[in-house]
Amino acid sequence: MNLSVGHLLPEGKVSEITQKVTSYFENDIWDADDAAFNDFRKSEWGKTHRKMNFSVFPTKLKNEVKFFILTRIQKDDLQLYSAVHNYARSFKQLSKFLKKFYPNINSFADLDINKALMQLRSHLSELGLSIRIYGRRKLSNYENLLNRLFLFYKDFYDTRDEFEKDIWDVRNIPGARFPDHESRHIVNFKDIPIPFRPLAKRYLKFRISHLSLGQCTLDVRILKLFFTFIHDKNPSWKDLNALTRKDIEDYLIFHNKTFHDKIQSKRSL
Q1: How far apart are CA 132 and CA 227, in angstroms?
Q2: What is the structure's pLDDT at 55?
Q3: Which whole number is the average pLDDT over 150-161?
Q4: How far apart are the C-alpha atoms of 66 and 72, rounded to whole Å?
Q5: How would you label 210-224 residue by residue, b for 16+ Cβ within 10 Å and e otherwise?
Q6: Exposed e or buried b for every residue in 112-143, given b needs 16+ CB within 10 A?
């Protein structure tokens, strides 16, 4: 979903944000010691860096940042400690960047995220700030926060049925089976050639209420391999109506030739 600058956001979604960001959370400064966070404080930490200051953000974006933080904490997708120590400490510089480069956006979903991330990295470098990359992450804390805000609101404002999207969040699919203790909730069809995506989605729509998320994710990887092969072989095809036994035999030869030494790694196809 691409929202252009000045795009009118879905009224129901804007109302959802307003209804959640009330009472204590209307304040522009949140203190992790406040009773409002009693149910979300998993552990205690030192007395430094316990507050989140949202006042630095432009008015149009402030509530989005609050809603993003609060929603993810309540869903246990984000620890309160991480919100304070990783996200809140990036607020000031991120807000300065937004005011300089994107003063007129209504939402983080307005961004061309790849362009914005490159601009942010260049901006931070010009300021002489250390752009430290943590662990396996390819993004610094600043970039990570901006990217997550974009992805969150790109999905949040997309009011299409979940099955119409190219990325499914199984938490939005009634009857989908997924482990509560894991953070993976995504089925991604974006690597499947566009002409065959609807077919792959119809197949997974049937299976997702009967099989685990892990199995469905594996199904998508296998479908990607098959449909990519067929698309490369017959780029004009928009369905499988013309599929022949020869096509299947050619695919099996391709598969065996490519993966005959990688039987144990089939899950990573």
Answers
A1: 39
A2: 96
A3: 89
A4: 10
A5: ebebeebbbbbbebb
A6: ebeebbebbeebbeeeeeeeeeeeeeebbbbb
Contact 144, 116 (CB under 8 A): no
| pLDDT tens digits along 2-18 | 443 445 788 899 999 99
Strands (DSSP E) contained in the chain are 29-31, 51-53, 167-169, 186-188
Categorise residue 61: left if φ over 0, alpha if ψ from -120 to 50, beta otherwise: alpha
**H helix or E strand, kind and range, residue 170:** none
pTM comes to: 0.70
Alpha-carbon distance values, 52 to 72, 141, 218, 232 (Å): 15, 15, 40, 51
| 226 and 250 Cβ atoms separated by less than 8 Å | no
243-261 pLDDT, tens per residue? Answer: 999 999 999 999 888 876 5
CB 141 within 8 A of CB 164: no
**88 within 8 A of 51, measured Cβ to Cβ:** yes
| CB neighbourhood size of 46 (10 A) | 6
Is there a contact between 215 and 266 (Cβ–Cβ < 8 Å)?
no
Q: By CB neighbour count within 10 A (0-12 exposed, 13-18 middle, 19+ buried), where does 231 fall?
A: middle
Query: Which residues have C-beta within 8 Å of that of residue 129, sequence separation ≥ 6?
Result: 93
Contact 90, 53 (CB under 8 A): no
The model's pLDDT over 60-94, given as tens digits with 9 standing for 90+, comes to 899 999 999 999 999 888 889 889 988 999 999 99
**Nearest one of 174, 150, 154, 229 to 196, comparing CA atoms:** 229
